[in-house]
Design brief:
This protein is mainly α and 98 residues long. It is built from three helices and no strands. The protein has a domain of 68 residues: F1FO ATP Synthase, CATH 1.20.20.
Amino acid sequence: MKRFILLLLLVALVSVVPVFAQEESSGQSQAVWKYFAAALAVGISCIAGGIAVGQIGSAAMGAMSENPELSGKALPYAGLAEGICLWGFLVALLILIF
């Protein structure tokens, strides 16, 4: 699974680099690459955020089964994992704007 994610990130990195290396002569082609890069930024970050929230949630449930007072301590960690999705969305907006 880790190899697949690493390969997916490598393909995304290789495909996003030509967007910034192009000149303005091919406006239509550049717009297509910008949308593709924005979709990859949101998609990969949301997948990674979902994986992180799933692992944090399962660990929090295991800890709460042993000690119910730990329920409030797991919430900030889940919020940090959901922040990954927000950063991916912000990167996509920056790609589309500039």
